[in-house]
Write a structure and sequence with these properties.
Layout (H helix, E strand, L loop, with lengths): L16 H12 L8 H9 L4 E4 L6 H11 L3 E5 L3 H13 L4 E4 L5 H12 L5 E4 L1 H4 L2 H7 L6 E6 L3 H6 L13 H6 L10 E5 L4 H11 L5 E4 L7 E7 L3 H13 L6 E4 L3 H13 L5 E3 L5 H12 L5 E4 L14 E4 L6 H8 L9 E7 L9 H24 L5 E3 H7 L3 H10 L3 E3 L4 E4 L10 H13 L4 H8 L3 H4 L8 H4 L1
Parallel strand pairs: 1-6, 1-7, 2-4, 2-5, 3-4, 5-6, 8-13, 9-11, 9-12, 10-11, 12-13
Antiparallel strand pairs: 14-16, 15-16
Length: 489
């Protein structure tokens, strides 16, 4: 049933449910789906668009991997990080399933091998980044009429909202992918799109649906509450006091796996060195490290050889490490969605886990770094919007992104910003058309920035605040977790 298919049959009917369940048990070894896994699988087999918000550790990957393996043809999985792709594809290959990945760090021989398998339609799942998807060599193959594409999955879809207007502008072009592919495929072909994430508030859900051009999608929205995860925040009055609080917190969990999050690459290096010098051996992890070093440190952490790493926000996304007992934010994240993603990496095995955030006192007089980081972030966004507005007056009314990028520095980010403001549309993934009209409301980063400050300062139940912020208002009205720091008070 899982051998690669070569026949091209647009929109085949979904298989009966018993074979679906039998394949699920055969591959993953579980007897039953967790809610709402079964409903999501059926939705994708019915070839419907979908938006799925499920907590970290809720089994999202099975929801799209199983339908892909049950159908002929190829499912594209758009994923933001190499480590995340490698983790999932390695697991699939160990199960002897036809999956592969494409990314910039692949050796030339591995890349050629994967592209050849893609052309011969030997794959059921292909993992790749937005940038790789829209690279000429890959796009040209995917656009060929005989390449059967069953669906497009956007994994970690919150990255579209968090990064699409900044350093990953290709995310903003993904809505043009399906119409462009359908033009090259036989009549009657359907290519459903499903977006998966653990964190999307109502605003983020609307952005994801709009950018991806989801067609009457089914929504599966599961609240993020985790009864085993204790949330706490502590004020650190000085930089020295912040470090001491972190050190004491780590020492309270000897020989237990954890993660320390910081804001910058330089911070990760400096803090890792300092902790190691004080008898807490660790290593830094950030995108500036050589790929081999990143892989080595990931594997050391996964195997338990490295109790914790000092990392920037990308580390841990989608990586299956169930026994993380603690997460510490040495620096508070900029967005509440980032915070929820990162604390959600603790306690995936259902056992008790703790998440600590260290913040400066409200005035920031003695420790001003938190305020400076937030202000730098907002200033950068304002500058970005100004540059986009200035570029709008210079751009031709329509054009190709490559041509414009050669003429104007940072054109890709400016075009993504104009798209978010409703002043530009993508005719296909490479050609834009301007709509020079009054910009619509901006992306909501400002309110999101103040929202996380309110979270850290609240005296109410922290889980109640998160439920309210992510759209689960009815549950939140009377909710008290009983185990966060505020409930303990």
């Amino acid at each position: 049933m899982l051998s690669p298919a070569t026949a091209h049959a647009p929109s085949p009917p979904p298989p009966p449910w018993e074979p679906v369940l039998a394949t699920f048990r055969q591959i993953w070894g579980y007897e039953h789906f967790r809610p709402p896994q079964g409903e999501v699988v059926q939705c994708l087999l019915d070839r419907r668009d979908a938006l799925i918000v499920m907590p970290t550790g809720g089994g999202k990957s099975i929801c799209f991997q199983l339908p892909a393996l049950l159908q002929s043809g190829l499912t594209l999985v758009i994923s933001p990080l190499v480590a995340l792709m490698e983790n999932q594809v390695q697991d699939l290959k160990q199960r002897h399933l036809p999956a592969a990945l494409l990314h910039s760090e692949l050796s030339p021989s591995d890349r050629r091998r994967t592209l050849a398998a893609l052309e011969r339609q030997q794959l059921r799942l292909l993992y790749l980044s937005p940038e790789t998807l829209l690279s000429p060599s890959v796009w040209n193959i995917l656009s060929r009429p005989h390449i059967q594409i069953n669906g497009v999955i956007l994994d970690e879809a919150h990255c579209l909202v968090q990064w699409g207007d900044t350093f990953r502008p290709t995310y903003r072009r993904l809505g043009a992918v399906r119409p462009a592919l359908l033009k090259t495929k036989p009549a009657g072909t359907k290519i459903p799109i499903a977006a998966f994430t653990a964190t999307a508030n109502p605003h983020a859900q609307a952005v994801i649906q709009s950018v991806l051009q989801l067609d009457n999608p089914r929504s599966f929205l599961i609240n993020p509450y985790r009864a085993n995860l204790m949330l706490k925040t502590q004020v650190a009055w000085t930089p020295r006091g912040r470090y001491q609080r972190l050190r004491d917190f780590i020492r309270a969990y000897p020989h237990q796996t954890g993660l320390v999050y910081v804001r910058t690459r330089r911070d990760s290096e400096a803090l890792a060195d300092r902790l190691t010098q004080h008898g807490l051996p660790t290593a830094a992890y950030h995108a500036g490290l050589p790929p081999q070093t990143r892989r080595q440190r990931e594997q050391a952490w996964l195997r338990g050889e490295l109790p914790f790493v000092v990392c920037t926000s990308a580390f841990g996304m989608g990586i299956n490490k169930p026994d993380v007992r603690w997460v510490a934010h040495f620096h508070p994240p900029l967005l509440l969605s980032e915070y929820l993603q990162e604390v959600g990496r603790a306690g995936r095995d259902g056992q008790p886990a703790t998440a600590l955030a260290l913040i400066s006192e409200p005035t920031g007089w003695l420790d001003s770094e938190d305020k400076q980081r937030q202000q730098f972030f907002l200033d950068r966004l304002r500058s970005q919007h100004q540059k986009a507005t200035q570029l709008l007056r210079k751009l031709p009314p329509q054009g190709h992104i490559q041509t414009v990028s050669q003429q104007f520095p940072d054109a890709a980010i400016a075009l993504a910003t104009l798209h978010s403001l409703g002043q530009l549309e993508w005719q296909d993934p490479f050609h834009y058309r301007l709509h020079p009209r009054s910009p619509r409301q901006q992306s909501g980063i400002g309110p999101a920035h103040t929202e996380i400050i309110r979270y850290f300062r609240t005296r109410e139940c922290r889980w109640q605040f998160l439920l309210q912020a992510f759209g689960f208002t009815e549950i939140a009205q009377t909710f008290r977790c009983g185990h966060c720091d505020n409930c303990h008070r």
